[in-house]
Design brief:
Layout lengths: L1 E8 L7 H15 L3 E8 L1 H15 L6 H14 L3 E4 L9 H8 L3 E6 L12 E2 L2 E2 L10 H5 L7 H13 L1 H4 L4 E4 L2 H10 L6 E3 L17 E6 L6 H9 L9 E6 L3 H10 L3 E3 L8 H7 L2 E4 L9 H8 L4 E4 L4 H5 L4 E4 L5
Parallel strand pairs: 1-2, 1-3, 3-4, 4-7, 7-8, 9-10, 9-12, 10-11, 12-13, 13-14
Antiparallel strand pairs: 5-6
Length: 338
């Protein structure tokens, strides 16, 4: 079997579980003998282009003539049996669905977030859940609130791309939702229920767990929905060393929160961003992983990895986290203060 994997990678400067999932999928398929052809673009192309270039490049999500031209040549040359789609925005157009069908390939899409409706992909803005764009053919509220990259102009381009290709976005032959609540989102969006299966992210089996380490580990992208501020506020209520040490790993807009917490507490270590290859050692050194998400979290790779290494998870009861932890994977709490 031959599989063409299509993904628009997120910026390298920010930790991305989705990028890691795609790399793991490619490696996993190749390990069992599948012929994999990756077609990967990077949002770093927008960052390097400057503001004017970002607008021109982001507009390619509507036409994406370069990406579609590339993919047409790959499909004609490679004749894959399956085209597996991940993130398509902003540099790859949803026109790839019809293009793949034209060349006789089946199309599978893994849905990682809520971007079919919400241009931010999170149903979260300004510190709270937001469903203003749900039920609208065009995400005008997302444009008004500049939900994509904090830019009204880029949000307009993204909302236009999503609206323009609504038909194509609903046409994959099979859809993978990473958690039950995401399956409900997909069906509400318009995917036929019989095409949508719940398959969570996976990781390689690391073998028998080592004895528990000490302290807590937080590893995530530092954006508001991931709950770093919530964790910092909760940790500040504890006497020093009452819960052992807290190790913080990652980077993003809320980096000053991590820096300030580490500077003010003797029981907090901020390590910055690390390579995925460093995560196993951090998991083996910790007693538990903390996931204080404030949005309808989907399927974080850190949770999957923690469970694989035999580390319990202290998480908020948001989105797919109860599904992942089940009855004995850790503890669930409300993200509400108190």
């Amino acid at each position: 079997m031959k599989v063409l994997v299509v993904h628009n990678e997120y910026r390298a400067a920010l930790p991305s579980g989705e990028n890691l999932v795609v790399r793991r999928q490619i490696d996993g398929l190749r390990a069992v003998g599948v012929d994999v052809i990756p077609y990967l673009r990077s949002s770093d192309e927008l960052t390097r282009a400057g503001r004017g270039g970002r607008l021109r490049a982001a507009a390619s999500a509507v036409g994406a003539s370069d990406a579609i031209g590339d993919l047409r040549r790959v499909l004609k040359r490679e004749r894959p049996d399956v085209v597996h789609l991940h993130n398509l925005f902003p540099l790859i157009s949803a026109r790839v669905v019809d293009l793949a069908h034209h060349h006789g390939a089946k199309v599978v899409q893994t849905v990682h977030n809520f971007r079919h409706v919400c241009i931010a992909g999170t149903y979260f803005r300004d510190g709270h859940e937001c469903f203003d764009c749900r039920g609208h053919a065009f995400g005008r509220p997302g444009v008004q609130h500049a939900c994509y990259r904090g830019s009204t102009a880029e949000s307009l381009v993204m909302a236009t791309a999503i609206a323009a290709y609504r038909r194509q976005l609903r046409r994959p032959d099979a859809v993978i939702a990473l958690a039950p609540h995401l399956r409900e989102h997909c069906i509400d969006y318009g995917f036929p229920a019989e095409r949508v299966e719940v398959i969570p992210n996976t990781t390689a089996d690391p073998g028998e767990p080592t004895p528990l380490g000490s302290g807590l580990l937080f590893a995530a992208r530092f954006s508001a929905e991931k709950g770093l501020t919530l964790l910092a506020e909760a940790w500040a209520r504890l006497p020093p060393h009452a819960a052992g040490r807290l190790t913080i790993v990652g980077d993003g807009p809320e980096r000053p929160v991590a820096v300030a917490l580490a500077a003010s507490r003797p029981d907090v270590d901020y390590l910055g961003s690390v390579e995925p290859s460093a995560i196993p050692a951090l998991l083996q050194a910790t007693a538990a992983v903390v996931v204080p998400s404030r949005w309808q979290e989907v399927c974080p790779t850190i949770v999957v990895d923690a469970l694989a290494y035999g580390r319990p998870v202290l998480a908020t009861d948001r989105g797919g986290l109860p599904f992942l932890l089940g009855a004995d994977g850790g503890w669930l709490v409300s993200p509400s203060p108190g």
